[in-house]
Each structure stands twice: as C-alpha cells, then as structure tokens.
Design goal:
By secondary structure, this protein is mainly alpha-helical. It has a single domain (5-128), classed as Winged helix-like DNA-binding domain superfamily/Winged helix DNA-binding domain (Arc Repressor Mutant, subunit A, Orthogonal Bundle). Helices cover 58% and strands 9% of the residues. The protein has helices spanning 5-32, 39-51, 72-84, 106-128, and strands at 59-60, 88-92, 100-104. The chain has a 3-stranded antiparallel sheet. It is globular, with a radius of gyration of 18 Å.
C-alpha cells in the first residue's frame, strides 16, 4: 500500500514532535543532573509546587499518574527516590487506605525554586530558539 502525501506529512510531523521531545528531555536532564534531578523528577516537583503552593498541602499520587507520562509503578519508584532524598513525603490516606498522599517538603520546595529557572531556560532554548522548529 502506497503512503499518501498527507500520510507522509503526518508521519513526518509525528517524528518531529518525538525528536523535539527527546532533545528537550535530554537537555533538561543535562542541566538538572548537577542538582541531583532528572526531567521526570523535576516534573513531579513542579506539579506539586504549582498545585500545592502552601506548605503542608498534599495530593494523591493517583492524581499525578498520566500527568508526568510515567506508568504508575515508575511514578511510585520516582516518588520513592524523591522521598529518600528528602524532597517529598508520602502518607497513607486515612479515608481510603489504598490511597497515598504526597507532599513537598521544605527541602523539596527549596530545590524546586533553585532549579526551576534552569528548567525553564532549557525549555526556552529548546522550544523557542532558532533550532526549535
């Protein structure tokens, strides 16, 4: 079956998106590595900091699934690493023992504030710079 021009353009657009995503994630990993974080680590910290701006606020881990583009088990492992590093804390939901809460610690908020400008600068370079399109 021959690929139509429209299909070829669609495939090319999709591959361009994947390429930009991969290059951007690698760049974010590169700039955050000296701070002990990767792109996915930052994404979790950023979601928590943005959606739970008051210290002590927490959210269900289940609410993060699908927003960080990781499987539930990969997200659980990532949160475990962040907890080990003292950046987040987990607790069991009293109302639903199956649910797990996650919250930023003071150290997590400070680390997020420290690296956020680096992540945003990487996004700007990768998505808005001359080579972005």
């Amino acid at each position: 079956m021959a690929v139509t021009t429209a299909e070829a353009r669609l495939e090319e657009r999709w591959r361009d998106i994947l390429s930009v995503h991969a290059r951007t994630m690698c760049e974010i990993d590169r700039v955050l590595h000296p701070h002990g974080l990767g792109a996915s680590d930052f994404e979790v910290l950023d979601l928590l900091a943005t959606e739970m701006p008051v210290e002590g606020d927490h959210c269900r881990v289940q609410n993060l699934v699908g927003r960080v583009h990781l499987s539930q088990s990969a997200l659980s492992r990532l949160i475990g690493r962040l907890e080990k590093d003292g950046l987040v804390e987990r607790s069991v939901c009293v109302e639903d023992r199956r649910g797990v809460w996650v919250a930023l610690t003071a150290k997590g908020r400070a680390r997020h504030a420290e690296v956020r400008p680096l992540q945003r600068a990487a996004l700007e370079r990768m998505l808005e710079g001359p080579a972005a399109g």
